[in-house]
Design brief:
Elements: H1 5-48, H2 64-83, H3 92-117, H4 145-161, H5 164-193, H6 195-203
Length: about 210
């Protein structure tokens, strides 16, 4: 049966209202997840940060450069989101569902890694005098699972924005600065543990199990 113009307008209004309600709920969920993540990160920095001599290599030892790059990358990604230059061919709710799942997985992996390191975790890339090499939990497979979780979450955030350029502007700068940080961290661990850490590197991967 054909709809009258009046019925058609009413049906169209209901669809728009449903879409609007769904988008707002998802945005609130992203806001909740993002705010919770930011507060947890700030708490971790407050509890685990160590003094760092800024004269040596040093921008990569501190977490400040990483989070500066994160903020800048996020700003650029949001700009690309508004420009719609490389829109992903995924329906909105499908894309948001996948992105929310990946974001949650990424954060869970990151904080699982932090808990696995326990008192040896620090946002400053330095070994401690009583440092012990942790190779259980996620560290059994990869050497830097906290960074893997971070990258998964940033990929998810770019996916939620729905633009390929947003994904790339989040992942590329952050991946670069994390790799520089990893280089500094691993040299420090080699200096501290010697061949033990070299053997650990031989049987694990850096960020992606069995691949990289």
């Amino acid at each position: 049966m054909a709809l009258s113009k009046k019925d058609g307008r009413f049906y169209h209004a209901l669809i728009l209202k449903a879409d609007h309600t769904g988008m707002t709920s998802i945005q609130h969920l992203w806001l909740l997840l993002g705010s919770s993540w930011a507060m947890l990160e700030m708490a971790i920095v407050y509890k685990t940060r160590l003094p760092c001599n800024r004269s040596d290599e040093q921008k990569y030892r501190s977490e400040q450069l990483i989070w500066g790059v994160v903020v800048a990358s996020l700003s650029v990604a949001l700009g690309f989101k508004q420009l719609h230059l490389a829109v992903l061919p995924l329906a909105y709710f499908q894309r948001q569902g996948i992105a929310l799942i990946l974001f949650t997985i990424g954060l869970a992996l990151r904080f699982y890694a932090v808990l696995s390191l326990g008192r040896f975790f620090s946002t400053t890339a330095m070994t401690q005098s009583q440092h012990v090499l942790i190779d259980h939990g996620p560290y059994h497979f990869i050497r830097h699972p906290a960074y893997t979780g971070l990258l998964i979450s940033f990929f998810a955030a770019g996916l939620a924005m729905g633009d390929l350029l947003a994904i790339l502007s989040l992942l590329c700068p952050v991946t670069y600065v994390l790799n520089q940080r990893i280089r500094v961290e691993e040299q420090g661990l080699i200096d501290h543990f010697g061949q033990v850490y070299c053997d650990y590197c031989e049987r694990t991967r850096k960020l992606i199990p069995w691949l990289y």
